[in-house]
Design a protein that fits this description.
The chain has 285 residues and is of the alpha/beta class. It is 24% helix and 20% strand. The radius of gyration is 18 Å and the shape is globular.
Length: 285
């Protein structure tokens, strides 16, 4: 069961800037799709060196595409002021070690996510019984080992602020991972949700390829804590965002998006978890 979004993606048609396809959704916010996952760039075009922030670092092999996109948008050789990691799953940290080293920039993440970013701890095994498509069956092939950026790793501040991102706040949105965070800008109601919610069915290879906008909870096969995931989605829905950029799928905006997000939040337990958990919850009620 999915919640459909009857809305075209808010993102502009991809701009060909150099070798990169960049979706600009605000004058100071753009995202780049690397294979199955998005990375976001916060900062106005032409911001120059240290004038912007990168959010997540895509899949393994994404380094060249991200560097090309950064050069096209901000200027040749422009480095970010920091890299913010929403979480440490393989498809969000694929280029993290190479980029943080090459750019010599800090990596900011929630302290609960640090064990997966400093080489100490691997994520739990995927749920191969999760329904929705072939991806859960392939999930054991996906890397779970931690990366190690301990030399540059720093905790996000206790007050929710981010020094390198004036006007933005980080929100703890666990469930998909213990230290998962989303980014929120109240001024224009812009939400970068990471994988707390996504706008494509990540379990289905067809849906991953088609990118038809739909509202979903976090990827089922890599979400161990569904109670926390439900609370996180309800927190995000209560913000009533105007623009939503997620880790997977296209950016979406407006009343239809907000309505779909509310419906997901209100009916989360009957919509988002794997079918066997939904059946168990129904039988227990």
């Amino acid at each position: 069961m999915t919640v459909q979004i009857p809305l075209r993606a808010e993102a502009l048609a991809p701009e060909r800037l150099g070798e990169a396809h960049i979706h600009e959704v605000r004058p100071d916010l753009a995202y780049l799709r690397t294979a199955i996952v998005n990375v976001a760039m916060i900062g106005p075009a032409g911001a120059g060196d240290r004038g912007w922030v990168l959010v997540d670092t895509g899949v393994t092999g994404a380094r060249e595409a991200i560097v090309a996109a950064a050069a096209a948008r901000f200027g040749e050789g422009a480095r970010p002021a920091a890299i913010v990691q929403t979480h440490g799953h393989f498809d969000h940290v694929g280029a993290l070690e190479a980029l943080s080293e090459g750019w010599d920039v800090p990596v900011l993440a929630h302290p609960l996510e640090h064990p997966f970013l400093d080489g100490r701890e691997a994520y739990p095994p995927p749920d191969t019984a999760a329904d929705g498509g072939i991806m859960p069956k392939l999930a054991p092939l996906f890397p779970r080992s931690p990366v190690d950026v301990s030399r540059r790793l720093k905790p996000l501040g206790d007050d929710g602020g981010i020094e390198e991102l004036p006007g933005w706040r980080w929100l703890h949105t666990p469930g998909h991972t213990p230290g998962h965070v989303s980014l929120w800008r109240e001024g224009d109601r812009t939400l970068l949700a990471g994988d707390a919610v996504i706008t494509t069915g990540q379990e289905s290879a067809y849906e991953v390829a088609a990118q038809a906008p739909e509202m979903h909870g976090p990827p089922r096969y890599f979400t161990p804590d569904w109670n926390s995931a439900a609370r996180s989605v309800r927190l995000l829905a209560a913000l009533e965002p105007d623009l939503l950029v997620t880790g997977h799928g296209r950016a979406v905006a407006g009343p239809a998006m907000r309505g779909a997000l509310r419906r997901l939040a209100d009916g989360f337990e009957a919509i988002a978890p794997p079918e066997r958990l939904r059946r168990a919850a129904g039988g227990a009620s």
